[in-house]
Every structure is written in structure tokens, then in C-alpha cells.
């Protein structure tokens, strides 16, 4: 996976890793990321040098989708569950280092402590909001459109290939 804040090449050692604007000429513009992906896949299938292609999200938006209402029961239940998993993990690790046959006590102790700490941390976190955020949500960064850019020496060839793709029905 590539880093979105670096250019195509790696910076020289000792230089800061700063965000770099994309380079290239637009060869296609799409309303959905899947369409831009399909276009680049078509270029790759056509032996186009895709290492010189960039997909750029334009008109970025942060979309927060509300997934539900938070209540004390949901908060404490979630805290107990996450604490239980962590406590079980710690208990199992402690159990591996105890004499044979007595591993169950550390596992149960870790599980119990995890539940207690999970409840406490969840309650403190939720109480500190004082009802200002009584909902759960998931955030996602999306773009209004996705432009496919290619380096100038290959832009015309890329546009021609994508024009042929546009004439084909989607598969």
C-alpha cells in the first residue's frame, strides 16, 4: 500500500516527508472511485505504464454516518466487552507462565479485571461528554469526483484507451 502523502519516488534520506501535489494530465474523470479503479485496471490490462498514473479525489468531504443512539446500557456493555477481551488476552499470557494445571486462575482474574476496568473507562468517557454526543457514528473521507492523471508523455495514449473503455458497456 502506498502512502498518500508521498510522491511517486522516495525522498532522499534526511529530507522531510512532506505532502506533494499530484502531477500529470487528466485522462479521465469519474463520479465513483470504483469507476476510476476500473479505468486504471483497463489501462493495466492494455499494457499501459500504470506506475505513471495517479487517482486523485477532488472536492473532498468528511461524511459521518450515524449508526445508532448511545445509552448507558450500550456504553457500559461495549466497555465491558472490550475490557473482557483485553483481560482475557492478558490472563492467557499470564496463564502461560504459571505452573501446569493452574492456568485457569490467571485467566479468570484477567477477565474479571478487564471487565471492571472496561466498565470504569467507558463510564468515565461517556459521563465526560455530558450528553453532548449521545450517538455513535462512523466517519469516511469521500470525494465528489475522481480524476485519473497520467504523465504527459503517456497522456494521449491513456485518453485513447479510456475512450475505448467508455464505449464498452460495463461488465
Could you give the topology of this structure?
Layout: E1 25-30, H1 33-45, E2 53-69, H2 72-96, H3 104-129, E3 135-150, H4 152-167
Antiparallel strand pairs: 1-3, 2-3
Write a structural description.
The protein has 171 residues and is α+β, with helices and mostly antiparallel strands. Among the domains are: 26-63, no CATH class; 68-129. The protein is built from 4 helices and 3 strands. The chain has helices spanning 33-45, 72-96, 104-129, 152-167; strands at 25-30, 53-69, 135-150. It has a 3-stranded antiparallel β-sheet. Helix 2 runs antiparallel to helix 3. The longest helix has 26 residues, at 104-129. It is elongated.
Keywords:
171 residues, alpha+beta, three-stranded antiparallel sheet, elongated, disordered N terminus
What is the strand arrangement across the widest sheet?
1-3-2
Percent helix: 40-55%
In percent terms, what proportion of residues is strand? 15-25%
DSSP E strands, number: 3
Structural category is alpha+beta
Which segments are poorly predicted (pLDDT under 50) over 5 or more consecutive residues?
1-8
Order of helices and strands: EHEHHEH
What is the straight-line distance between the termini?
26 Å
Radius of gyration over C-alpha positions, nearest whole angstrom: 26 Å
Biggest sheet descriptor: 3 strands, antiparallel
Q: Indicate the mean pLDDT.
A: 88
Any idea what the shape is?
Answer: elongated
Put the structure in a nutshell.
The chain is of the alpha+beta class.
Amino acid at each position: 500500500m502506498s502512502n498518500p502523502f508521498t510522491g511517486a519516488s522516495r525522498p532522499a534520506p534526511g529530507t522531510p516527508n512532506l505532502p506533494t501535489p499530484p502531477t500529470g494530465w487528466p485522462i479521465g474523470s469519474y463520479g465513483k472511485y470504483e469507476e476510476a479503479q476500473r479505468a486504471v485496471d483497463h489501462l493495466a490490462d492494455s499494457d499501459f505504464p500504470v506506475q505513471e498514473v495517479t487517482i486523485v479525489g477532488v472536492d473532498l468531504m468528511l461524511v459521518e454516518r450515524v449508526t445508532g443512539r448511545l445509552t448507558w446500557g450500550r456504553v457500559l456493555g461495549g466497555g465491558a466487552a472490550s475490557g473482557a477481551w483485553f483481560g482475557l488476552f492478558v490472563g492467557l499470557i499470564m496463564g502461560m507462565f504459571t505452573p501446569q494445571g493452574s492456568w485457569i486462575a490467571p485467566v479468570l482474574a484477567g477477565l474479571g479485571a478487564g471487565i471492571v476496568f472496561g466498565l470504569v473507562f467507558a463510564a468515565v468517557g461517556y459521563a465526560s461528554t455530558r450528553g453532548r454526543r449521545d450517538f455513535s457514528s462512523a466517519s469516511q473521507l469521500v470525494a465528489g469526483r475522481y480524476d485519473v492523471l497520467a504523465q504527459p508523455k503517456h497522456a494521449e495514449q491513456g485518453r485513447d484507451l479510456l475512450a475505448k473503455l467508455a464505449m464498452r458497456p460495463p461488465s
